[in-house]
Amino acid sequence: MQWTDVCSVSDLQENSGVCALVNGVQVAIFYLPTDEQGVYAINNYDPIGKANVLSRGIIGDIKGHKVVASPLYKEHFDLQTGACLEDDTVTVPVYACQIENGRVQVDTHLVALIENSTNAQQQGVSA
Description:
The chain is mainly beta and 127 residues long. A four-stranded antiparallel β-sheet has the order 2-3-4-10. Strands 1-12-11 form a three-stranded antiparallel β-sheet. The chain is globular, with a radius of gyration of 14 Å.
């Protein structure tokens, strides 16, 4: 993994999200301090609302799934898998992240791989 330092944990709001630009990609980072993992990172782009807004969504739990509700149309995206709970054909990229010595880190190698794959799929669909 190629960890990139994104911010300090003290920069985050508990049980909320922020957006960070990681290698040119908008990544929504969610801080759940009472959760074992602590932080989750998904792509900030809401594919249903077609806007970069997921970091502004409300965090919750639906049937044991940690989710964020999009602020646009209220679809719920699983923070661990990126799957949309209302439409199983829709997903958002999920990125490995961790807290190390009070700093939030995102795996930039994974960001690049996922974004390259997503871009290739979009180009294939539009061709």
